[in-house]
DNA sequence: TTGTACGCGTTATCAA
DNA sequence: TTGATAACGCGTACAA
């Protein structure tokens, strides 16, 4: 029982061929005679050799087959909203032609500053929701010279970005409500900055998260004076908390609430039910994303459906292109209005 | 503009030191004089060198800092239930002493059979929910001689497993209902096999998924004749569908429903509401997991809380131990009964 | 504290 | 179709 693992050289020696020949048998890059192949395979079996060591191969090839995905929140938070997991599925699809896997990176300010991001054998990186701390990650990756794509964030420079037409989409939704005759409209937004504080957004307040800002701007294009309340995360419970605040206004309460995500909208609907308001008769509620909100039936949200899986897939393809030496272009996806049963006349 | 990336040798040459010295400066494994360090760092900055290439380092060290996590479902499905994301967070914690990241692997039967699992530079692997197709993954990993830990699955052999006392826990919950006087009890189970078909589970039917089987057995220890209905996934909507079927029975309908997950329980509660039944006055409902079900308030599920994060952390620690050359033992966690407001007297 | 020499395991290139 | 050779970029004994 040898303690050392067999290498391709051992296999080659045992099979009586050159190491390069054995390598060719495993990679299949060059034709080899059936007899040779069999001899090599037999030798490998006898030695318990299961194929080239990926570490050595990746050094030689300059490719590890690993794409890093960096979120700026904890995994638990990031995956709370299905829109992110759907995007991840698309991303997994997008990179699969590369035979690549996805390495989950937490953007904590752990002890070592971004330890894995600097030390992981990445072929490329995808940053999700670039704002705040993620800018450090971006700098790190750019310095390493690794191809990087940013989803839903402003990366500046020549970094390909995969975006949505957030402002136009929210504008469209606001016009829908206007056409229904709504005058008093409030909105529940996604977090406005890294602090993720819950509360009303003052008129001139700065919103550093791009998605949140753009959707808010879209709403204000139509309703300049809409009241805005920021949630601390995208979840039903956060929507519920925000909804309670917004619907407590008595006579001045809004007749419609525009939520910046479907989960938030679901929470607002719960708040309405609590307050004895019927949706959509007494209150119209709109979402954003177009995901399936687990447990929301029989409501079907009126929402702006975003192509989340396509977004991920596009990011994957952009990564693949860059690794192929081509320049990848930024791409902006369009959301589509989807009527449900949660909006009605004022 | 040189096309080739700078290596540590280039940096050393420019700094006028030996490569090994430069290496030491970056790794910090051996003390070096401040002057030398500064010269090396300056040279690195001038050359745009950002530190050792992880690919080369991992070959040299025999470590890649990557732990593979293999699910048997699509990412979107796996992450639908928070219990899994919580577990992932724990796992991320558990492997962080290794400075390792988590590589997400889909266990699809894609064209290439498990391409990434065989070709990724993994230090270790964690299989989640070992049953059906995952057995192939297990064989693959074992053949590669990579340390592997199985969460919630039967791996046989000497593979460390991280489990729950599913049977005892469900038994305990069943006794809780019995002590409340319930006679007609039904259960909504997690998927029973790889096919994930929805429907009643016949008396002698085989249940191949261990978790599902064990919890069902625990229930039958107390209520041998309980009606069982299998859901196709762990979600509120699946629980709702199952609840509709189980509560349609008229006079023979159960007075209590034991769900095998909190999400399923939430769905059953919705079904009860639909049917005009009050929880817990007309129907008691119990869950399993002890997660926070987004949007379920004001209900607080009576449930068996499982230490999901600890499970992940333990798996991470087992992996770390095995990489340290120690043998890792299997571990079985215990669930704890948590009273909520969803159960009451029959 | 620094330098020399070597090997980690593989694969591309080129010649035979 | 096969074989010899030379990197890939780094870390670490060991000697100085």
Automatic annotation (TrEMBL), chains A, B:
SUPFAM superfamilies: lambda repressor-like DNA-binding domains, Periplasmic binding protein-like I. SMART domains: HTH_LACI. It comes from the Bacteria. Keywords: DNA-binding, Transcription, Transcription regulation. Coiled coil: none annotated. Residues 6-61 form the HTH lacI-type domain. This is Substrate-binding domain-containing protein. It comes from Microbacterium kribbense.
